[in-house]
Input
Amino acid sequence: MIEAPAARAWPKSEAESLPGKLIIVEGIDGSGKSTQLDLLHKWLVSQGYLVVFTEWNSSPIVRSTTKRGKNRRLLTPMSFSLIHAADFASRVHTQILPALKAGAVVLADRYVYTAFARDAARGVSRSWLRDLYSFAVTPDIAFHFDVPLDEAIRRITLSRAEIKYYEAGMDMMLSEDIMESFQIFQGRILDEYHRLTDEFGLVPIDATQTLVKQQQQMREIVQPHLADIERVEGGDLAEVLRHSGLRGRYLQQPVWAEASE
Output
């Protein structure tokens, strides 16, 4: 059996007192993490678990501000960091904590490690970033989908018509050529992820394996953490969560299907 290494906890983590489970995925663009999280999501729902999904930079409170800053190219590395921290804080208190208190399995597409990697790659102090996100709940499992830079870039160029300005790190003036800047910047982020894997005990997944193999590894690691999680047989999961005080667009209507092992 594959076991997840213990993640380093923040000093004030509430994780031990919460009945739910927090499972997160990380990786550079093109790593395939979102695809694998979606497959895990569908499997968990088919098994009858309460599942709540949240993703990076999705809080309606700061979304318009972030979009405006990006469109006008006004964001500095520090302001970029602070605005994403505001987004994360909003989601922690309106989505993640209520769901964990309700006993749900929370799946997060990117977590604080995205800020640790991207912002550090932009030159923001690593220790300052740890302090900024010290309120975060420690995840039960944090997966890092590790993929070579050249493979990630190949996937990105095949699936997208263009690379975005900040995604390419153009604000860092690494190169006047957007693709070259993208390669340099994403390489820095990948280096930071390898640092974080050692520091926080992220669970590495070889993202060059087949989709089936990656999903099998995820489920094998996740399964032992579900022993104490209550299942709902044949009910409306969203309605159950609402009875626990949860509201919002992040509630996922279940799709009942046979489990695929």
Q: What stands out?
A: Residues 243-261 have pLDDT under 50 and may be disordered.
